Automatic annotation (TrEMBL):
Region feature (Disordered): 253-289, 484-543
Highest taxon in the source lineage: Eukaryota
Protein name per Swiss-Prot or TrEMBL: Uncharacterized protein
Upper lineage: Eukaryota, Fungi, Dikarya, Basidiomycota, Agaricomycotina
Gene3D superfamilies: Zinc/RING finger domain, C3HC4 (zinc finger) (3.30.40.10)
Polar residues composition-biased segments: 484-494
Source organism per UniProt: Galerina marginata (strain CBS 339.88)
Low complexity composition bias: residue spans: 259-283, 506-515
């Protein structure tokens, strides 16, 4: 009804047929009480033109009031844009984010079917996967429309007392109809499912699930499915959550460009002395991310309202108006590929906490678009205890296989780290006996791997040797970190076998002194005298 003013009216019906989805969610045709011989329909307001519901297209909910909902609609015949005020009652009225049932199959039909109004192009996640290749503003717009449609549609079903607790997530399919989000759902009579949902790694449903719970799950599933081609498996996706860097200066945030990467992370530990590698557009990808807050008191009605208001402002802006942040991983990853960047349009229930987040390194399980390899889980557990900001050069300890910031293991003096770690540590295990190795084999090994020093070769042999006894992870990490803190500088150029063997003898003497010092709880200077574990040199970067 265009601009209805019947405030407080209840349970009226349009002339013609009205189909219920309330109660048992079975379509019930209510016969028309008006003339059927082509005479004008009788309206509920005398003197006003009556309109058949089939002649009216409801496009979008604009307001949810007490006992009614305002929609943006269009008269099909004339194309005139109108506002529609639909009153709530015991019978469900039409909603733009719920399929509109217009016909059903015969009672004795061998293939029962339902006929819905409108055209559905595809599922929302499949359309979104194509949108992710476009500009960031289009991605943000589509994401906002998805959140608005899901929150509004589920809020509508909630008012109809839809039994969310008795159905699973697989009962819902999010479709797209000319850019409009439509939630297709199964009747409540279907048996509830309890199998895990592979998309989210969560149970398909819970007996306490509400419309609010399904809203978060559907947002997360829709956005994740749109990005599933970026990951080896959907289960590994979003395993490692990232955090916003709220202290990041937005004026330093590089503007996004469709023809270039937006991040500037070094490709290796020697990036501080080299010019940055040229950026490749093929290494840039964009994603939509939904963040479900731990404690969320925002209602579906409020979510729909604030996102709709934000979308209206978004249409009038030439660029995305979300704040921009540099991302950081709580998992502290170490994979580095020149040219990689990922832009995440990250949405949450509080639109002010939503942001466009830039990452310069991938997550575990992600297929890197630069090297096409699946990113492995590698931990950055630096002595400083800080996060990986994705810009600082890093080095890897070959004993514990953990990564550290290069400045942290190359700039501090021994006494600084001596105060950080306790005096009681286990003895550093001995390395394989280099003196027993054939000199020709040593020379060949040094030439092949370009070992910069005798100490580094001994360290490599120690890391991959079988003579190292098992110690607790905490003890091993302490020993490795203390050794890395020595900041020993590697030698440049080839090293002769004679120098290698002479160096080995000195190392054995120093190791014995170190072990004696540990047993006697010696001074910090004695602890850090051991050359057993040293940092990776600048020109040696683990891939």
């Amino acid at each position: 009804m265009p601009h209805s003013t019947l405030a407080g009216a209840r349970d009226f019906v349009f002339e013609g047929s009205v189909y219920q989805i309330s109660g048992d969610y079975i379509a019930n045709a209510r016969p028309s009480t008006g003339p059927s011989n082509g005479q004008p329909l009788q309206g509920i307001v005398q003197g006003r033109r009556a309109l058949d519901p089939e002649d009216l297209s409801i496009e979008q909910e604009t307001y949810n009031g007490l006992g009614y909902r305002m929609h943006l609609g269009q008269i099909r015949q004339s194309g005139r844009v109108v506002s529609v005020k639909v009153y709530s009652g015991s019978h469900a009225k039409r909603h733009p984010n719920i399929p509109h049932l217009i016909a059903v199959s015969g009672l004795k039909s061998k293939a029962p079917f339902l006929v819905f109004d409108g055209e559905y192009e595809d599922t929302t996640d499949r359309l979104l996967s194509w949108v992710l290749k476009k500009e960031t503003k289009e991605i943000l717009t589509f994401g906002l429309q998805t959140v608005i449609g899901l929150s509004s549609g589920l809020d509508y079903l909630q008012e109809l007392n839809y039994p969310f607790a008795s159905v699973g997530l697989d009962h819902f399919v999010v479709l797209s109809s000319k850019g409009k989000i439509v939630i297709s759902f199964d009747p409540e009579e279907l048996e509830p499912t309890s199998e895990p949902n592979r998309d989210l790694g969560l149970p398909n449903h819970s007996l306490t699930d509400t419309a609010h719970d399904f809203f978060h799950k559907l947002c997360q599933r829709t956005f994740n499915d749109a990005c599933k081609a970026h990951y080896k498996s959907r289960h590994s996706q979003r395993t490692y959550h990232d955090e916003f860097d709220d202290d990041f200066d937005e004026s330093r945030f590089e503007e996004f460009d469709d023809n270039s990467s937006s991040s500037t992370a070094p490709a290796s530990s020697s990036a501080t002395t080299r010019k940055p590698s040229p950026r490749s557009p093929s290494g840039r990808r964009q994603e939509l991310v939904w963040r479900s807050p731990a404690a969320d008191a925002v209602t579906l009605k409020d979510i729909s309202r604030q996102f709709q208001s934000f979308l209206n402002f978004q249409h009038s802006s030439s660029k995305p108006i979300l704040s921009r942040r540099r991302g950081r991983y709580t998992a502290r990853m170490s994979h580095r590929c020149p040219g990689y960047s990922r832009i995440e349009v990250t949405l949450t229930t509080d639109i002010l906490r939503s942001a466009i987040v830039s990452h310069s390194s991938p997550t575990p399980g992600e297929i890197c678009p630069v090297c096409t390899e699946v990113v492995k889980e590698e931990i950055l557990n630096c002595l400083c205890g800080n996060y990986d900001d994705e810009t600082m050069p890093i080095v890897r300890c070959w004993a514990c296989f953990e990564w550290h910031h290069r400045p942290c293991v190359g700039c501090f003096d021994t006494e600084t780290f001596a105060r950080l770690w306790p005096q009681e540590v286990h003895q550093i295990p001995s390395a394989p006996d280099i003196g027993a190795v054939d000199p020709a084999q040593l020379a060949e090994m040094m030439g092949r791997f370009e070992f910069p020093s005798a100490q580094y070769l001994q360290y490599q042999l120690q890391g991959f040797g079988s003579g190292r006894p098992q110690t607790s992870p905490g003890d091993t990490r302490q020993l490795d970190q203390m050794g890395m803190a020595q900041n020993q500088q590697p030698q440049n150029g080839p090293v002769s076998v004679e120098k290698l063997q002479a160096s080995h003898m000195r190392q054995q003497q120093q190791r014995q002194q170190f072990q004696n010092g540990v047993m006697n709880h010696s001074s910090p200077a004695g602890i850090f005298a051991s050359p057993g574990i040293i940092q990776q040199p600048p020109n040696q970067q683990d891939p």
